[in-house]
Amino acid sequence: MTLKNTVDRWGPVSQALHWLIVLMILGLAIVGLTMDELPKTPKYFWVYTAHKSMGLTVLALVVVRLGWRLYAGTPAPVPGTPTWQERIASVTHWLLYALILAQPISGWLYDSASGLRPFRWFGLFDVPKLTAPDDALSQNAMAAHGLIFWTLVALVAVHAGAALYHHLFQRDATLARMLPRGWLKLAASTSAPAPAAKPEEPPHVV
Ligand code: HEM
Ligand code: HEM
């Protein structure tokens, strides 16, 4: 078994990075949207630091994912996909990459410009500041952090909707090839050659 992507499937590394990043973003979104309502106890700062540390981890994982993509290549489009769909999918995917890079960077910029003392990444080391304290920049970066997030939500809805549409209605391998082999029975048949018919099988007699 190869770890790299093949012509007809995403390999295990690309799959793991895709779904891990999805889960981390889901967790970050839930915490990000609720953390300012927490009571101002020491736990409050702990949750903020956890959100920031996890957010920077997503940034690092997206960079690794792009590096791996460069090294391991990408599968060919699912057979039968019209060119216009291929183009829309490609634009959507690059926009998603841009947003999942911009989301943590805007958070990091906000944190840097706000003039707070450096936070420690999961308590291990001080995270460097990107800029000197700057009120206007800090406010803009936080506004961008929210805006980027809601743009991401909208695009992910289209992206996930398209994946489910392909699976349920087109019945092709788009979703199955982003999951471990055999997880989705329905579409698996289109990603592997169909078994040859047995010529010696007798005709069906009622
Ligand atoms: C992919 C990574 C990230 C995601 C998905 C994410 C998501 C969010 C969301 C949804 C919010 C709420 C925004 C709003 O209420 O308008 C938020 C707030 C925030 N995020 Fe992030 N974030 C990420 C990375 C980061 C990073 C790397 C930092 C800092 C280093 C950070 C710092 C903050 C801060 C300080 C808030 C403000 C909370 C408040 O007081 O309302 N985030 N984040
Ligand atoms: C935070 C949420 C998500 C983000 C940021 C995201 C991002 C991406 C990106 C950037 C790609 C392109 C991979 C590449 O070309 O290197 C991709 C592929 C894919 N994603 Fe997502 N995704 C998310 C959620 C989902 C969900 C919920 C589903 C399914 C319901 C899904 C299904 C897929 C599939 C099937 C592919 C492969 C498409 C193909 O082979 O052409 N994604 N995703």
Features:
Fumarate Reductase Cytochrome B subunit, 206 residues, disordered C terminus, mainly alpha, binds protoporphyrin IX containing FE
Classify the beta-strand content into a percent band: under 5%
Bound molecules: protoporphyrin IX containing FE
Strand segment tally: 0
Secondary-structure element pattern, one letter each: HHHHH
The CATH homologous superfamily name equals Transmembrane di-heme cytochromes, Chain C
**How many domains in all?**
1
Q: Roughly how many Å is the radius of gyration?
A: 22 Å
**Structural class of the secondary elements?**
mainly alpha
Description:
- This protein has 206 residues and is mainly α.
- It has a single domain, classed as Fumarate Reductase Cytochrome B subunit (Up-down Bundle), CATH 1.20.950.
- It is built from five helices and no strands.
- It is elongated, with a radius of gyration of 22 Å.
- The structure holds protoporphyrin IX containing FE (HEM) (2 copies).
- The site of one protoporphyrin IX containing FE has 22 residues, from helix 1, helix 2, helix 3 and helix 4.
- Residues 25, 28-29, 32-33, 35-36, 51-52, 55-56, 58, 100, 103-104, 107-108, 110-111, 145-146, 149 line the site of one protoporphyrin IX containing FE (HEM).
